[in-house]
TrEMBL record, chain A:
Species per Swiss-Prot/TrEMBL record: Rohdeia mirabilis
GO molecular function: FAD binding; oxidoreductase activity
This protein's name: 4-hydroxybenzoyl-CoA reductase subunit beta
Record has Flavoprotein as a keyword: yes
Keywords, ordered alphabetically: FAD, Flavoprotein, Oxidoreductase
Automatic annotation (TrEMBL), chain B:
Name recorded for this polypeptide: 4-hydroxybenzoyl-CoA reductase subunit gamma
Lineage of origin: Bacteria, Pseudomonadati, Planctomycetota, Planctomycetia, Planctomycetia incertae sedis
Entry keyword annotation includes Protein transport: no
Pfam families: Fer2 (PF00111), Fer2_2 (PF01799)
SUPFAM superfamilies per UniProt: 2Fe-2S ferredoxin-like, CO dehydrogenase ISP C-domain like
Organism annotation: Rohdeia mirabilis
Keyword Oxidoreductase tagged: yes
Organism superkingdom: Bacteria
A molecular-function term among this protein's GO annotations: metal ion binding
Keyword annotations of the record: 2Fe-2S, Iron, Iron-sulfur, Metal-binding, Oxidoreductase
Residue span, 2Fe-2S ferredoxin-type domain: 4-80
EC number: 1.3.7.9
PANTHER family: OXIDOREDUCTASE WITH IRON-SULFUR SUBUNIT (PTHR44379), XANTHINE DEHYDROGENASE IRON-SULFUR-BINDING SUBUNIT XDHC-RELATED (PTHR44379:SF8)
Amino acid sequence: MQGFDLATPTTVDEAVALLAREGSLAIAGGTDLLPNIKHELFEPRTVVALGGIEELRGIELESDGTLSIGATTTLAHVAAHDEVRCRATALAQAASLVAGPQLRTMGTLGGNVLLDTRCQWYNQSYFWRQSLGFCLKKDGSVCHVIESGSKCVAAASNDTAAPLLTLDAELEFASNTGRRRLPIAELYKSDGVANLRKEPGELLVRVRIPALETGRERLGAYGKLRERGSIDFPLLGVAVRLDVVDDRIVHAALGAIALQARPLALQKAAAALIDAPASGPGFDDAVLACAAAAARQLHPVANVPGDAQWRKEMAPVYVRETVRAARAGTGPVHGR
Amino acid sequence: MASSIVELKVNGDTVEVAAPDHFTLLEVLRYRLGLTGSKQGCDKGDCGACTVLVDGEPVLACLTLARLAVGHEVTTIEGLMPAHLRAGGTGADPVQEAFDRCGALQCGFCQPGMMLSARALLDREPNPSRAAIKGALSGNLCRCTGYTQIIEAVETAIAASTERAPDGGSR
């Protein structure tokens, strides 16, 4: 691995001062950063370790019911936490399916939210990429996914981004010029080279999930398509949120990942569920309409492993089953 | 690039090694301390062959910077039997004994990581279900056995520990 200096700040102020320097990158779990450094995709001069910063850790329920999760809280902790499982079920389920057990013990929610986009032509060693003539995202000028493509289509592969989109999460960033809050829907853009509207020196501090309106029951589930039952990144991820009042769906949201550079909000699919009954034949019809609408919006390309046509055919299946799981209080939807 | 003296707690011993900042825990274990039981497989978090325990939790040594392990208890496969003996046991750790008895290996490359993931599971949950065993080992790849004997070995270790529990002989 290429050499770098390691800094170990103990406060957010120290960390953002270090991150403001050119060539600095933050490390939390390191489960994506270190492979990317080993592959010479990232070439930091200084790596700033966040593990010693108390403010970035832990899960709190704020007085107004907001669920506040520190950026370096591990995915294993998020997956197992009672309040997360209850108030943000799809997020807990998504966190429980990221990679394998060791990586969830190490990897953090913040790291997953800010995960670099992935592509089967990019997440490879320097030798491998050089043999191919590199690509748009790093060191080259061609796209191997879309012939003659001029825009990188590396895929947002962060499982937790899909549920956080449906839950209207808000992100708190710190930098050496102060702090700001950003709705997660505004974080991502459809550029695979750099899909985050985030300045290089900014540090994600906390992820906040707003409280549910009184009188509503919030249901959620996450579905993940991958070839093996563990370790793999998603070939498709679908998060579902249903807010139910008196057996009627009053609000629905769906998020999908591993398709293009930006996690997608599936608004037409969600619209098919809103105002539908939450049980019986009316619900069954709405679920099928939702899956059909999602299928029209989801167009996998050969950016991540797995046959794109297979991923496309599985999309409505995963949408359908994940909505059903949300309603039934089961999930995650997983496995072939 | 900076180097420093890193003080680590490995298998109950405090050790000091000089290492560059970018060295992983796996590199320090293997190439500074000679503890080659932790395997360098994919070296990028896919295979689990480098699994070690940090404060009792299985983590990947290939993706842990050595300096960030300072202040934590690191257990490698070399430390499993000594820990068992210190706890009053005899012979190897029951997980090691069971892997041996069940022939839960062929080439052996995945075995240290497998056994450490299994040990952490049994320390957390003495009598786990088969599904829990599969889940706990799902970050460790084996290319030889097809996993059947590995899962049987963990169940054998559970049975051995449960049988010995009444006379205080288990861990």
